[in-house]
Amino acid sequence: MTPQGYYSKVIGKLKNCFRGFHYVVAAGRDLLAEGWDPSFLVAVEPVEELEKFTLRKGMQVHLPVVGEKSSSVLMPMDFEVFLLEENHKLYTDKESQRCWFKQMAPVFRFVERYFRKRGLPYLLDYTPSGAHLLWRNPLGARAAAELEKIGFLEQDLIAACRYTDERDIKRRWGVSLEAARMFSGLGKLAEYVALLTIEAFKNNEAEGALPVTVSDSVDRCINFDNSWAEGSPFMRSIRSPFSLHKKNHDKYRMFHLPPLVDVVGACFDGKAAAEESDMDRIVECMWDLEKAAEHSRRFSGIIPDADESLIGLIREYRSSALFEFHEEFDKTDDLPRQEALGRAKRDGRVTDFARSILHNPNPRALQPKNLMGFVYDMLIYADWKAKHIANVLRDLYIDPRYGWSIDFFKYPAEEKAGFWARTFASLALWKKGKLSL
Length: 437
Fold this sequence. Notes:
Number of domains: 2
Strand content: 5-15%
Mean pLDDT: 96
CATH class of the largest domain: Alpha Beta
Strand order of the largest sheet: 7-8-4-6-5-12-13
Largest sheet: 7 strands, mixed
Shape: globular
Number of helices: 17
Number of strands: 13
Structural class: alpha+beta
Helix content: 40-55%
Radius of gyration: 21 Å
Distance between the termini: 48 Å
């Protein structure tokens, strides 16, 4: 079956996925034929062009996180396996992928049980490297109001969300601050679920399995890739359920192989689930478009809306030690710009590893593994407050002498620094037994 033939079977379900979104993000080498810059193969067009990218061009397509005119915010919880130099095996070798999925399955099931026990609706979409757990959060609902209360917005993020540009479909209306706070709140809930899962699988490595962590901060791991929660909400998207997955072509140039495909594993409405629990069947569908099209008949493609059961999860998070840490982090006064970095460079308690990043930050101060080590050393050995570690990272990011290639307006420096310092500080405190869940 051709990619276009596959899409012809699932186009109605894809359209259901894009309900409430006003644009589609399409990515991949297919854009080279139209003269696109090879360094940025991403197209963003009105959702009415969905059929062009799928039925005609056979491309992979992504959902925005923020709905049209900030009408909703998508929860795009992301799990993945990371294998460093062997990551290509997830996209080029079916049997290798089958093996790694068997290691990931207990993590998927743990998180699913967590949500089902609380009656939280979701759609679980398997990708060749892991899974996405999705639900929509309509603005104005009671659960949305509770999400807003736990969110936090830095001043540079507020400025980015308020900025509008008629020529940029992602920024035509900006992002309402209510939606931005919901996005922030969802990131904190994802961090809470991640730590609960890390706690449940803390003996994985000792038992010969991959450790569970946050982002690809360990060379070989199963991780919650919470990077989607960092940055401006209008810059975030996630591959849609039923989309092709062409990383074997786009990244590894394995053109002799057919494209892979994301496969829906479960849709839970809060009471009952339509699901496929056989991971061998999921993998078979990923590698066979005809089987994937047949499998898709079991699902509508509608991403469930959060209901009031989400309020119970928010209350559980608010009663946790992680919430206390987040509250302290958000309320701690910032150090003035450049003062934090100056203090860190003069601090004799700073380890050699952390000091090396202070003086040579690009790209190490952007890499999860190095960020995790830097935050750990500054917090545990140098006895810095987590918020002030964030201020050090902020000072590094805003200094043009380091030759950053990131647009720190679209990915605000203060918000980026705060997100990663907070994330890895909570993980450090958990590792040292100072934050119990």
